Task: inverse folding
């Protein structure tokens, strides 16, 4: 996975102020150390260039790269993030977001790396490697978090509700009891009358 790196094209030193000349020379020295894979010396050179010009985006960018090469991931990430947020140059912003995405991918922070690659592509839609890295990160995230199958829940069968007898107040119960007693009395009276009409007791069986 490639990382962007900024090389300085030699300029006519006579045309630049003395401070800018020194900064350019220091960054070139850092780049030489970087090519020789002496990343600690490259880091020192870029730090020196930033002392000479604290606003140098080239020095900041290459410093973050040298930190990343030394395994100082958090420091490198901070450098790329600050540059991505603060630079006004579109290409520089795209490169900073891309490299930020690379560091995040190596840290297995897939969701954050995906966002970084998307930001890089927003600034530079033609960046094929940013697009490829985005697709790889999306695929890796899908493998890590496969979609969960939704379990079909059977609807619970509703139990038929038992019809509750309406509760009766003591007063209503007393009234009903009196009514039943009255009906029973009336029935007994009617039976007595019928017996008297039929002429007394009935004959016994043998």
Result:
């Amino acid at each position: 996975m490639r990382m962007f790196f900024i090389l300085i094209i030699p300029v006519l030193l006579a045309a630049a102020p003395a401070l800018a000349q020194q900064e350019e020379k220091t960054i070139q020295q850092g780049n030489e150390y970087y090519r020789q894979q002496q990343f600690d010396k490259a880091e020192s050179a870029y730090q020196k260039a930033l002392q000479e010009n604290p606003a140098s985006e080239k020095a900041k960018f290459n410093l973050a790269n040298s930190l990343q090469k030394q395994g100082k991931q958090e420091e490198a990430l901070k450098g790329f993030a600050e540059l991505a947020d603060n630079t006004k140059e579109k290409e520089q912003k795209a490169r900073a977001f891309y490299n930020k995405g690379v560091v995040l991918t190596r840290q297995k922070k897939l969701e954050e790396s995906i966002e970084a690659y998307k930001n890089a592509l927003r600034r530079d839609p033609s960046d094929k490697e940013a697009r490829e890295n985005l697709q790889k990160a999306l695929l890796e995230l899908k493998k890590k978090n496969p979609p969960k199958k939704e379990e079909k829940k059977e609807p619970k069968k509703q139990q038929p509700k038992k019809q509750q007898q309406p509760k009766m107040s003591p007063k209503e119960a007393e009234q009903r009891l009196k009514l039943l007693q009255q009906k029973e009395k009336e029935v007994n009276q009617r039976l007595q009358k019928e017996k008297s009409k039929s002429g007394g007791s009935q004959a016994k069986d043998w």
Q: What stands out?
A: Residues 170-197 form the longest helix (28 residues). The helical segments are 18-35, 39-52, 57-69, 73-86, 90-106, 110-123, 128-144, 170-197. The chain has eight helices and no strands.
